[in-house]
Each structure stands twice: as structure tokens, then as C-alpha cells.
Backbone:
């Protein structure tokens, strides 16, 4: 039995700016168009909301892994909602459930998720991050790829899935 490919899109919630949200929306749409599942933190804000809406608009399957033990405050368009009651520890679930982890934008939660992804030897791609964050993640692992466009991020995802 073959499993669906799951691409984790991690990024800031309340702190996400409109440009980052637009990139997350496009990224979610293109991931869905490629036939892959979009996994986010599931909350109805920022990158999580935008990537989910982009994927849904493109007809994709979406999964939200929630820190709370209920589905309150989730993106209504999610197909699969998984309340964990784990708080920030749910970041481990987000990372381990994803074949590739994409960090879109920058914040403390995103940094934690991407650091876990590096620790678990997951392919990591970052987009829409300041140079200091790009440098930080490159120093954590030379395997981290920095994308400057969604098209470039998608190419890196495809390369990572071939490995």
C-alpha cells in the first residue's frame, strides 16, 4: 500500500505579514496541485490558514495538527483535524508526520519546528525568511535549502522526495 505524501508547511500565526500569507497560500495551492497533502498547525491564523486555503482552493487534502485538545479555533476548511492536547509538543507530531518540512516566514514556533525537523533529519526548505534566519538554519544543517520563490521551493520539495 502506498501512502500519500505529506508536506508540512510551518509558519507564524498571528505574526504573519500579508506577503508571507500570500506566499503560504500559493505554496499550499501548488503542493495540492502536485497531489500531495498539506499539513499545518491547523489554527485559523497566518501561514496555517493561508496554506490550508490555498490547498483547498486547488482541490487538495488538508490536515491540521492542533496544540489544544479540542478543534476550537481551527481553519474551518481543514479536511482532517487532529487535536492533540500536547501544546507546543505537538510540533514533534507536525514534523514526524511530514516527509518534507517547509518553513514559510519566521517566528519562535516556526524556528522550533524547523530545528526539530533538522534534528529528525527531515528535508527542510525555508522561504520568506530574513537573511539572519536563513543563515541560522544553514548553520544548523547544510541540507537546509533556501528558496526565494514558490516555484523554487516546489523544485526543492520534488528533489527531496526523490532522495
Residues:
Amino acid at each position: 500500500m502506498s501512502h500519500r505524501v505529506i508536506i508540512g508547511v510551518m509558519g507564524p500565526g498571528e505574526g504573519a505579514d500579508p506577503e508571507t500569507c500570500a506566499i503560504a497560500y500559493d505554496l499550499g495551492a501548488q503542493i495540492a496541485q502536485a497531489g500531495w497533502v498539506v499539513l499545518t498547525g491547523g489554527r485559523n491564523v497566518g501561514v496555517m490558514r493561508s496554506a490550508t486555503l490555498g490547498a483547498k482552493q486547488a482541490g487538495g487534502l488538508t490536515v491540521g495538527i492542533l496544540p489544544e485538545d479540542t478543534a476550537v479555533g481551527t481553519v474551518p476548511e481543514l479536511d482532517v483535524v487532529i487535536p492533540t492536547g500536547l501544546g507546543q509538543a505537538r510540533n514533534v507530531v507536525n514534523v514526524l508526520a511530514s516527509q518534507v518540512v517547509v518553513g514559510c516566514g519566521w517566528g519562535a514556533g516556526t524556528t522550533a519546528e524547523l530545528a526539530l525537523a533538522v534534528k529528525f533529519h527531515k528535508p527542510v526548505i525555508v522561504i520568506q525568511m530574513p537573511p539572519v534566519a536563513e543563515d541560522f538554519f544553514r548553520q544548523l544543517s547544510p541540507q537546509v535549502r533556501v528558496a526565494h520563490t514558490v516555484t523554487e521551493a516546489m523544485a526543492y520539495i520534488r528533489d527531496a522526495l526523490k532522495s
Summary: Helices lie at 18-33, 46-57, 90-97, 108-119, 131-140, 150-162.
